[in-house]
Design a protein that fits this description.
By secondary structure, the protein is mainly α. It is built from five helices and no strands.
Length: 70
């Protein structure tokens, strides 16, 4: 399961739209959209923020990045 999959699951389970999730996490809406669509992975600082706020492990994003670039 990718970081994007985890994020979409997290939003669905909480009934959050992307806009609501972006506000909750302090991100811009376009950035949240890219994360949720798997078109962007967060840097370490944002991955840690995501983990603290959602429980999505940092590794979910790094594993995704390694699969794309590895």
């Amino acid at each position: 399961m990718t970081g994007a999959d985890h994020l979409k699951d997290w939003m669905r389970l909480r009934g959050f739209t992307q806009a609501q999730a972006a506000r909750y996490m302090g991100f811009e809406e376009p950035y949240m959209s890219l994360l949720a669509r798997g078109l962007r992975t967060p840097g370490l600082t944002n991955a840690i923020r995501l983990e603290r706020l959602t429980g999505i492990p940092v590794e979910a994003w790094t594993a995704e990045k390694e699969a794309i670039h590895g």
